[in-house]
Automatic annotation (TrEMBL):
Principal location listed in the UniProt entry: other
Lineage, opening ranks: Eukaryota, Metazoa, Chordata, Craniata, Vertebrata
Superkingdom of source: Eukaryota
Species this protein is from: Mastacembelus armatus
GO cellular component term, pick one: protein complex involved in cell adhesion
All copies of domain Ig-like, residue ranges: 22-125, 137-234
Chain ranges passing through the membrane: 12-32, 240-265
Protein name: Junctional adhesion molecule 3b
Annotated PROSITE patterns: IG_LIKE
Keyword field: Cell junction, Cell membrane, Disulfide bond, Immunoglobulin domain, Membrane, Signal, Tight junction, Transmembrane, Transmembrane helix
Signal peptide: none
Keyword flag Transmembrane helix: yes
Pfam families referenced in this protein's UniProt entry, alphabetically: Ig_3
Length: 295
């Protein structure tokens, strides 16, 4: 019972001491934090990767920054110098924050801030920051058929490969946005198209006369958007009667040619047979005429 009382008194004493001096033990360890572990910026803008030291007792800690990619980590700040991919494009803000002054798309990666404090009991700490550099789309490549027969299928394509994150696509007809689903708009309700916002493909299963017009595509992401120039698609009727008449004319012409060839072939055969018969007659008669007639 006496031992229990002494243990309880020790616990109370320790609790009282810690409550009165909460920072006493914290200064024996280096502790890092960041104000934003998933920052983003647009290409060519500046961005800050914050690495804040909450507690430390070492007066001159060693600070390092590493860029982590699929190929492994590489130094971007070492021995108090900016190096590697960020050379001449970054600075250190005391005590350990990394400021990139001109971000490029290749800077998208994870970055690790490491602080080593040899005079602290917990002498090492690190934080990882995931940086995304967004890239505005460039002008997309668009293909629009110039003319399509009424009732036939048609496909319009839009491609853009520079933007990051990956671009999504919108199509416009006569400056008006085409909805993803035609059934959501009275104006496009009877249209037969399917729009894929991920691939930029606009497909018509059966083109109507109302589908004729000027079309252009917009590629967009979080960094901005870009558009291709408008292109006109016309819808024309198929002349069924004309096609049938044309086919009949071709058939008649081919038939006439075939008949002519057959007649010519038969005429040549008859002429050849008559010539052979005549030649045979002429060669036999002189033989009989040359022999004397015996009575």
């Amino acid at each position: 019972e006496l031992a229990l009382k002494r243990a309880h008194a020790s616990i109370v004493l320790c609790s009282t001491f810690l409550s009165c001096f909460p920072g006493y033990f914290s200064v024996l360890a280096v502790v890092l934090r960041t104000s934003n572990n998933s920052p983003w910026t647009n290409e060519f803008d500046k961005i800050e990767l914050s690495c804040l030291i909450d507690s430390i007792s070492t007066t001159n800690p060693r600070i390092e920054w590493k860029k982590i990619t699929n190929d492994g980590p590489s130094y971007v700040y070492f021995d108090k110098k900016i190096s590697g991919d960020l050379e001449n494009r970054a600075v250190i803000r005391e005590p350990a924050t990394l400021l990139i002054t001109n971000a490029t798309r290749s800077d998208t990666a994870k970055y690790r801030c490491e602080v080593t404090a040899i005079d602290d009991q917990k002498s090492f700490d690190e934080i990882v920051i995931d940086l995304v550099v967004r890239v505005k789309p460039v002008v997309p490549k668009c293909s629009v058929p110039k003319s399509v027969p009424f009732g036939k299928s048609a496909e319009l394509n839009c491609v853009e490969e520079e933007g990051f994150p990956k671009s999504q696509y919108q199509w416009f007809k006569n400056r008006e946005e085409i909805p993803d689903d035609p059934k959501t708009s009275l104006k496009f309700f009877n249209s037969s198209y399917m729009l894929n916002v991920e691939t930029g493909t606009l497909k018509f299963s059966a083109v109507r006369r109302e589908d004729a017009g000027e079309y252009f595509c917009r590629a967009k992401n979080d960094a901005g958007y870009a558009e291709c120039p408008p292109q006109t698609m016309e819808v024309y009727d198929i002349d069924v009667v004309g096609i049938i008449l044309g086919v009949l004319v071709v058939v008649i012409v081919l038939l006439c040619i075939s008949v002519g060839i057959c007649c010519a072939y038969k005429r040549d055969i008859k002429t050849c047979s008559f010539s052979k018969h005549r030649q045979h007659t002429l060669t036999i008669n002189p033989v009989f005429l040359s022999k004397p007639i015996i009575h």
